[in-house]
Amino acid sequence: MNLYEHHIATSDSQQMSKVTNMIREDIKKSHISEGIVVVYSPHTTAGFTINENADPDVVHDMLYGLEESFPTRTRYYQHMEGNSHAHIKTSFMGASQTLILHDGELVLGIWQDVYFCEFDGPRNRTFYVKIIEG
């Protein structure tokens, strides 16, 4: 079976954690060299994105921009749990990413990594990696 389950403990209310190396380990275990890799979050307040890995200020700026666009607190949210901002940010980023697997390697740009995006932490989270041969 080429489905891998991962657990990640987030430490901040909103953070982006690189998970690319976890995915690469799954690829090695799968012995698949050509296909598609899907990463998926089963949470409504955490998702995935692919973005720059070289300058940590990019992650800071992305979280800042998301907070400016979808603030944590506003008098207009009606959801009783108080985490509407996290639901909106997750919907904006997406619950999954699809990547190309070629010659046993992820096809990513030199400055790219895959990030797990927490918007309602800290929490213990689960995510899945599915490797499809093709």
From TrEMBL:
SUPFAM superfamilies attached to this UniProt entry: YjbQ-like
Pfam families xref list: YjbQ (PF01894)
InterPro entries tied to this protein: UPF0047_YjbQ-like, YjbQ-like_sf
Signal peptide location: none
Similarity remark: Belongs to the UPF0047 family.
This protein's name: Uncharacterized protein
Protein source organism: Clostridium scindens (strain ATCC 35704 / DSM 5676 / VPI 13733 / 19)
